[in-house]
From TrEMBL:
One of its GO terms (molecular function) is guanine deaminase activity. It catalyses: guanine + H2O + H(+) = xanthine + NH4(+). This is Guanine deaminase. One of its GO terms (cellular component) is cytosol.
């Protein structure tokens, strides 16, 4: 028997092209198993999908169907600290709050409790895909992967490499770090998950040696894996590298093994034109984390400069330097940060809500090299989607009458939260 076709009928909104938001009023998306098999206007539905194997979901006038949101940078193990230690610069914040917390993830039970909570909560906010940093502990990071697999989230999960400049009781030797990364990759492959995969995760240039980086770049190549790290987040971090000539010096753009078309660098607040060009030339991406960049006083990343240079850009919450698990919040901060830049740059065109939505969906998919699978409602892609309802009881705002689909979309971006996300689908499975 043919498998069931799920028809979602109502206001459909997605980016069918980069930076282009398409609104299909009275539209439909047809899904079979995990994949999108047709998209269009509901008038085209006559004579199609007439068999009994059709299940219809009719959206109300206050609902929109959008692609799942993509968090390209989040530290799952920092969730217990969310909202704590803000307004301290990065290196101080790491020492006072973050490393002491991450150390606790040696404990498997604590890991499971925290990781289940992060995955549940991010799914509830509509994050269908996340690129996670775990801790330096392999077994604990495997528990994070298990949480994502069990709860149905799509994820890249990284065991962190930290061999330099960490506290004495939260650090690895280079040999241990590489061996454990290999073990992590091996254990992940045994899980055989379609949705959850490993990612090589050197924390930042301050925390690894040049040799570690080369070896990790080679390991990424050997297993065809993506790479994630922080880059040029703060002036202090860059200075720390410059004061250690002969080491990683400056940043990852000087270590070509780590610059690949599947590399993703968080922050990139303080970059020269040449460094941006290197990212563009290598096909690497950045994770823009504007909330975090304000909280740790890091600066404002000029995202437009990366976009114009042809660098792929996604959005990250960067919990817990970012103080929200919601990519809706990241969209708002991206708009605010860009608008703030425009006040001092003549002729600068700030990002608008269409741009922010692109970065949160198709842009994020490209940044994670997953745009062959997710990011919009293209036929053949997997169905990662949210039903968003702007008129829910006890929602964040009240609704006074009818709105167009585009107005509902704007309200979602500027006022939405998890209460508005009434259903979440990952690869066709309803996970909220
Ligand atoms: N740089 C190195 N580690 C971290 C981290 O955990 N968070 C942020 N925001 N930056 C970092
Ligand atoms: Fe981070």
């Amino acid at each position: 028997m043919e498998s069931i076709v799920d028809l979602f009928i109502g206001n459909i909104i997605h980016c069918d092209q980069p930076f282009t938001v398409t609104v299909i009023q009275k539209g439909f998306v047809a899904v079979q198993r995990n994949k999108i098999i047709a998209v269009g206007h509901s008038s085209e539905l006559q004579n199609r999908f007439t068999s009994e194997n059709v299940r219809k979901t009719l959206l109300s006038d206050s609902q929109i169907l959008i692609p799942g949101l993509i968090d390209t940078h989040i530290h799952a193990c920092q969730y217990p600290n969310i909202g704590v230690g803000m307004n301290k610069p990065l290196l101080q914040w790491l020492k006072d709050h973050t490393y002491p917390l991450e150390k606790k993830f040696k404990d498997a039970q604590f890991s499971k409790r925290c990781y289940d909570a992060v995955v549940k909560k991010t799914l509830s906010y509509g994050t269908t895909t996340a690129a996670y940093f775990g801790s330096i502990y392999t077994d604990s990071t495997l528990i994070l992967a298990d949480s994502a697999i069990r709860l149905g989230q799509r994820a890249l999960v990284g065991k962190v490499n930290l061999t330099k400049n960490g506290p004495a009781d939260y650090i690895e030797t280079s040999e241990e770090s590489l061996r454990e990364t290999r073990r992590f990759i091996n254990e992940m492959s045994k899980k055989n998950s379609e949705l959850v995969k490993p990612i090589i995760t050197p924390r930042f240039a301050v925390s690894v040696t040049k040799e570690d980086l080369k070896a990790l770049g080679e390991m990424a190549k050997e297993f065809n894996l993506p790479i994630q790290a922080h880059m040029n987040e703060t002036i202090d971090g860059i200075k720390q590298l410059e004061s250690r000539p002969g080491d990683v010096h400056k940043n990852f753009t000087h270590t070509h093994e780590i610059l690949t078309e599947k590399s993703l660098f968080a922050h990139c607040v303080h970059m020269t034109k040449e460094e941006i060009q290197k990212l563009a030339d290598s096909g690497s991406a950045i994770a823009h984390c504007p909330d975090s960049n304000f909280n740790l006083l890091s600066g404002i990343c000029d995202v437009r400069a990366f976009i114009e240079a042809g660098v792929k850009v996604g959005l990250g919450t960067d919990v817990s330097a970012g103080c929200s698990l919601s990519i809706m919040n990241a969209m708002r901060y991206a708009i605010t940060a860009s608008t703030a830049l425009s006040f001092s740059k003549k002729g600068y065109k700030p990002l608008n809500y269409f741009d922010a939505f692109y970065l949160a969906t198709l842009g994020g998919a490209k940044a994670l090299s997953m745009d062959d699978k997710i990011g919009n409602f293209e036929v053949g892609k997997e169905f990662d989607a949210l039903i968003v309802d702007l008129d829910v009881q006890n929602g964040p705002v009240d609704i006074f009458g009818e709105h167009t689909a585009l107005e509902l979309f704007q309200k979602f971006i500027f006022t939405g939260d998890d209460r508005n996300v009434t259903a979440v689908y990952v690869a066709g499975n309803k996970v909220k």
